[in-house]
Amino acid sequence: MAGKHELDEEHPPCKRAKTEDDILSHEKGETDQEREVGITAFVSHKSTRFECVVKQRYTDFLVNEILPNGKVLHLNQLPEPRRRKHYEIAAPISGDVNEPPAKDSRADCKDKHEEDSERLNLALTSAQTAVTSTDTADPPVIVPELSPEERADLLEIFGEEVASNIIKLHAAILRHPHKKPRDLPTIKSSIISEKSRRTQAHIAVRKIFKSRLQTETLQEENGVIAIKAAPHKNTKSDGRREQVDDSGAIAKGKVGWNELGGEYLHFTLYKENKDTMEVLYFIASQLKIPVKNFQFAGTKDRRGVTVQRVAIFRVQANRLVNLNAMAKGWVVGDLEYKKHGLELGELLGNEFTLTLRECCFDGDRGMDHAKRLEKASEIVSKATEAFRTKGFLNYYGLQRFGTFSTGTHVTGMKMLQGDLEGAINNILAYSPDHLPENQDHHGMTKVPQDDINRADAIRTWRETGKLGHMPRRFQAEYSIMQYLSKKNKKTGELLQSNDWQGALSAIQRNLRMMYVHAYQSLVWNTVAGRRWEVHGEKVVEGDLVIIGEKGEEDMPKDEDIDEDGEPIIRPAEHDQAPANEDRFTRARPLSKEEAESGKYDIFDVVLPQPGYDVLYPANEIGKFYEEFMGSVEGGNLDPHNMRRTWKDVSLSGAYRKLMGRPLNGVEVQVREYKTFEDQLVKTDLEKLRTASEDTAEVDEKKIAVLLKFQLGSSQYATMALRELTGGGAVAFKPDFSTSR
Description:
With 740 residues, the protein is of the alpha+beta class. It folds into five domains: 19-62 and 349-391 and 662-737, no CATH class; 71-140 and 252-338, Alpha-Beta Plaits (2-Layer Sandwich), CATH 3.30.70; 142-229, no CATH class; 430-507, no CATH class; 510-660, TruD, catalytic domain (Pseudouridine synthase, 2-Layer Sandwich), CATH 3.30.2350. The protein is 30% helix and 16% strand. The protein is built from 21 helices and 23 strands. The strands form six sheets. Strands 1, 2, 8, 9, 10, 11, 12, 20, 21 and 22 form a ten-stranded mixed sheet that branches. Strands 16-15-17-18 form a four-stranded antiparallel sheet, covered by helices on one side. Helix 5 runs antiparallel to helix 7 (195-208) and helix 12 (408-417) crosses helix 17 (509-535). The longest helix is centred in the C-terminal third of the chain and has 27 residues, at 509-535.
């Protein structure tokens, strides 16, 4: 025994950080959760299985959108308004120098085991100098930069000093859109004796400044032209006048938006450890606009560093730029006006750069470090090759089904069953373990503070009817409670306490549809596992393929896409019907001869989400839809009867590829590192920093695997990683501080 003990001390077994399975040992582990939502099968043999920890640091999970043209989106430039290529910040008439923004002194709660926003703020400070106006009443406004020809005309007509003052006056009009013309200065030219030159001056000012400036020749000063702000005009009768409403958005002056490039401001959103909607709700609150004005191609994971494109309707760029000074854990950059917005699914896919830590490999116990590295490289090489060539089952990941004890798919099932009260009870369910009095009051707890506040707010509302503090990201819960709490102002009686459909309709539509989509995903996952179990990679008679993908009739190029990037078949009564409702994605079953011809492979096969406008496989898998959905687990539903009187739960269906694989191969690297604090890859924001930091020498015997791969827009990195590691990847779960 002594010898064994000595061997273990010299070559200790592989250890790893706490994971969800370790910390939540009394709750369901990931494997149990996967089985509950139909995630059961693997494509490749588990001989290449290895264990690792995912997202130990949120910088271990980098996600960059792949644009429709195939280019990977990166944060390339942080806004420096005075140096923008096409626009400049208007300077105050007085010539006051703008001061940099004051640092936000509000203290945030810090998780003991999580990086806070200081790292992001440091990188942001290193990468940009934010400029804001000292005039807090009217923020600086970005105006179209004059062309060289326009500047030359002004200089020739008025001279340098007067031309400069005219430009400043124009800027002041935009900076103070509600000021009366008499409250703005009047600029006087030098004497222009020739009438033709004065006519030229009048025309030039009107043309260059879009009639925002008014000119007149002074009678009392012969040959002198006065330039001042033009009277405010009705934008409906004069589309050339840019006016700014209370939210800061330019009013309906079409010419003004066209000059900028379009009515949609596109920008790159870089965020760290934040939900997409959490950031957009904050931006919307600061701009005083509805969050529905934002458009994006897809939401991104919270625990990670993500880069995505966002569009917003009719908002001036400088107002968004100024919010960078307030940003905590996010930043915006690469702003551009365009004539169109963004649609869900308007991306080719996502590029993932993952750091897998605490890697352990079968049989490496007792090996010296050099041999462990050699074995790691061998197993990882085989695993990535199998992943690249054989692909993975295109399961919907766990994030599709929610994070609480009652999954979103159960809520969706109840909505389809017509049990809307039950659906609401599911949404408002919480674990007693999440209540404040059940937390570790020594300062550490396994439950995030937002989840504690959520449970407390729901309990308070249930017991007293009062709306407590609900964290911003739980919009569904708050919307329901607010709707059901509406009272008659005179009598104090509840007006709609039993209007369950109304309460569900109060939830933002995309979020509301998530529940029924989750049920569809449960069915799809379960059927996909059965399809693989019965037929494996063999294409069989009755399998469905998309019409047009193998040289048949052309595939529609302008598909409608759902929030996970899949083609949707929309019902005719949909309240956001596509421009061309004849463009559908259609599938058909293969004949026996086609299945055996070799023309089709497993990557061509699709399975439908249940709906009233899809075909089901013309084989035993089609019958399995009826069997599963008709069971208690499947909700006692009929796949051939998916229409409902409430159109939001009247599902038309969609098709999804059975298999997924990386778009352009896999980059892999086995690395050594010292502690979990070592960051092994740089984020986009860090790449913009002027000073780069060298990686410290490694003397600790830990192994990490760095992966970079691209997936289509409807594919989940967690499911790809599950296949690559043989189920050995487990999610890191930090402890959370309850201190405020």
